[in-house]
Amino acid sequence: MSTPERFPKTTPATVEEIPLEELDPREFILEKIAEIRNKVGDEKAINALSGGVDSSTVTALGHRALGKKLITCFIDNGLMRKNEPQWVLDSFKKLGIEVILVNAQEEFFAALKGIADPEEKREAITQTFYKKVFGRLVGESGVHHLLQGTNYTDIEETVAGVKRQHNVLAQLGINTEEQFGYRVIEPLAQLRKPAVREVAKALGLPEAIYNRPPFPGPALATRIIGEVKPERVGIIRKATEIIEEELTGIEAFQSLAVLHQDMITGVRNGIRDFGFQIEIRSWISEDGKSGTPAEIPYVMLIRLSNRITNEVPGVVSVTYNITPKPPSTIEAI
Ligand code: XMP
């Protein structure tokens, strides 16, 4: 994978992993609080919270370190799951952390218009997030420090070129200060997801957050093959809601729906119904680096198929992915 040319390269940072067995969460928290305070000094910092375990942990850690000197924003890109923005805001309010809601739906959809290529979609989301929406917020706030929840697996996969992760910049040698006007602080860069969860727990975050299944930065766009339009996000959002409801009892790392690009012939009430195809994926995995499909009971798959074809308008076909990662990936783009 090559880094887009418009990013000037610096030397990629090297990061040493702290394995779960070697992690002392309390000690780690104290160290990172000191490090964040040291880097930010008397200035202010900003961070974007998505509600995933990584960004939630960074938010809690950052607020412990900086208190009100940390501005936390939730950027609604229009690609989130049902009720997600409000759930995240409410969860943090209960912890005494105010989060600013930024509605950027139109900007993201405008940037994604007409794009079908997976990497171009990721690039459009990255650029809209960092340069337009976040860049503007940072510019308006006059803040130069950005706290970010990048974890060790993100760095590994990005550097290896498996995928262009949306939240990894410094490790690609991208100079964020020159490009976007801020310095990135990545306190979780040495931890994989299970270790991040331990830190989240030690920070006093509720279980609904520290045990939350991972959800990608580019959100539902990673589950739409072809163009990302509001109507297509609506389809995948509803299918995701059904899958998450039905599969809560399954011991899976992540369960998700994918909307395919090709339409397929179906039949409804004796009449041809040319419609959408939804693929279900449910993963057994340690940290998302590799994975195997969960052995979902057949009755449950049938129930999912019935609900999705009845409750998601236009869907005529539901399949279950039985391919491990590799060669599949967890998300579809
Ligand atoms: P993949 O699809 O690469 O997913 O096999 C591995 C894990 O990473 C999550 N994922 C992302 N997380 N930004 C993120 O923060 C991204 O761009 C991104 N893409 C994938 C995915 O949900 C899985 O847990």
From TrEMBL:
Protein name: GMP synthase (glutamine-hydrolyzing)
Residue intervals of the GMPS ATP-PPase domain: 23-212
PANTHER family listed in its UniProt record: GMP SYNTHASE [GLUTAMINE-HYDROLYZING] (PTHR11922:SF2), GMP SYNTHASE-RELATED (PTHR11922)
UniProt xrefs under InterPro entries: GMP_synth_C (IPR001674), GMPS_ATP_PPase_dom (IPR025777), NAD/GMP_synthase (IPR022310), Rossmann-like_a/b/a_fold (IPR014729)
Highest taxon of the lineage: Bacteria
EC number: 6.3.5.2
Residue sites binding ATP per the record: S50, G51, G52, V53, D54, S55, S56
Pathway: Purine metabolism; GMP biosynthesis; GMP from XMP (L-Gln route): step 1/1
One GO location term (cellular component): cytosol
Keyword field: ATP-binding, Glutamine amidotransferase, GMP biosynthesis, Ligase, Nucleotide-binding, Purine biosynthesis
Gene Ontology molecular function: ATP binding; GMP synthase activity
Described purpose of this protein according to its UniProt entry: Catalyzes the synthesis of GMP from XMP.
Organism lineage string: Bacteria, Candidatus Shapironibacteriota
Gene source species: Candidatus Shapirobacteria bacterium CG09_land_8_20_14_0_10_38_17
